[in-house]
Write a structure and sequence with these properties.
mainly alpha; Arc Repressor Mutant, subunit A; two-stranded antiparallel ribbon; two-stranded antiparallel sheet; 4 strands
C-alpha cells in the first residue's frame, strides 16, 4: 500500500515544502493495509529524513494544521494517517513481464548447461595433461647442467662441459678488464668467449691479473696486452715459458720456446695434478 499512499500524497498534498513532503512520505511509508495508522517516533522519522527531531515535531504540527496529516493520540503514543482516498483495488496485471522473465530464465539455463559442458571438457584435458606430466616426472631426471660440448677449449678432464657459476664468470671478466686494454663494453662477445676459454683452462682471477707482470717481460709490445694476446699466450704464461725476444743489441736472450711435444706434455701433467 505504500506506493498508493505516496501517489496520493503527490496528487493531493497541500504542502509544497521539500522537507515537509519528505516527512509526510516517511510517515505514509509505515501506513499498513486498510489504512492502518503508523506510529514512528520523531527520532525515527528524523533519522530517515536526515534532519533534527525538533524539525519533525514542528512539521507534524504544520501538516496536521493544513490537513495533510491526521494525528491521533493513544496514551503517550501518536499515530498518523493521511486523509486522502487511497484505492484498494489493484490494476489489471500484465503478465508480459513474467513471460519475458521465463524466456530469459530458459536462456540462462541453456547458457549454464553449455558452460558446464565446456568446463567439463577442460577439466578432462587438464587431467590428461597432469597424467602425462606425472609420467614424465616418474622417469629418471636428466641433469642439464652437464652436457658434452664440441669446443676443445671448454672441455674438462673428463671431456664433459660443466656450466660455470655466474659469480665465477663475473670475477673472470673483472680480472680481464683490469689486465687487458680491450674495453669490455665495446667487445662483450670477445669477453664472453675469453671467459669460457679461461674457465676451461681452470684459470683463477689471480692468475689473470698476474699475466701483466709476465707480459711486461715477454710481451710483443709495451703496455697492457690485448684480449687476444692474453689468450694466445696463456699457455706460455701458465707453463712459465719465457719467450725468445731479441735484445736491443740484436742478440738473443738465450732462452728458447719449448717444442710442441714438451708443451702438450706440460698441459697433460698440469691437468692430471
Amino acid at each position: 500500500m505504500a506506493l498508493q499512499h505516496l501517489r496520493a500524497i503527490n496528487d493531493h498534498a497541500v504542502t509544497t515544502d521539500p522537507l515537509g513532503r519528505a516527512i509526510l512520505k516517511e510517515v505514509a511509508l509505515d501506513i499498513g493495509h486498510n489504512n492502518q495508522p503508523s506510529f514512528p517516533s520523531y527520532r525515527t522519522i528524523a533519522k530517515r529524513v536526515g534532519c533534527h527531531y525538533n524539525s519533525v515535531a514542528a512539521w507534524v504540527k504544520k501538516l496536521a494544521e493544513c490537513g495533510d496529516l491526521i494525528v491521533t493520540k493513544e496514551g503517550r503514543q501518536q499515530k498518523y494517517n493521511i486523509p486522502f482516498d487511497v484505492p484498494l483495488s489493484q490494476p489489471d496485471y500484465d503478465n508480459s513481464y513474467d513471460n519475458a522473465c521465463d524466456n530469459s530464465y530458459d536462456d540462462t539455463v541453456t547458457n549454464l548447461v553449455t558452460t558446464v559442458t565446456i568446463l567439463s571438457q577442460a577439466v578432462d584435458d587438464i587431467v590428461t595433461r597432469l597424467s602425462q606430466i606425472e609420467q614424465l616426472l616418474s622417469q629418471p631426471d636428466y641433469d642439464r647442467s652437464i652436457e658434452v660440448r664440441s669446443k676443445e677449449k671448454n672441455r674438462s678432464k673428463n671431456n664433459i662441459y660443466i656450466e660455470p657459476d655466474r659469480p665465477l664468470v663475473v670475477t673472470i671478466k673483472t680480472a680481464l678488464s683490469k689486465t687487458t686494454k680491450t674495453p669490455q663494453e665495446f667487445e662483450p662477445e670477445q669477453y664472453s668467449v675469453a671467459t669460457e676459454t679461461l674457465i676451461g683452462y681452470e684459470a683463477t682471477p689471480e692468475q689473470i691479473e698476474g699475466f701483466r707482470a709476465w707480459w711486461d717481460i715477454n710481451g710483443n709490445y709495451g703496455g697492457q696486452p690485448a684480449l687476444r694476446s692474453l689468450l694466445s699466450n696463456w699457455t706460455n704464461y701458465t707453463e712459465g715459458v719465457t719467450l725468445n725476444k731479441q735484445q736491443p743489441n740484436g742478440t738473443s736472450n738465450g732462452r728458447s720456446q719449448p717444442t710442441p711435444e714438451e708443451r702438450v706434455a706440460a698441459i697433460v701433467a698440469r691437468r692430471e695434478s
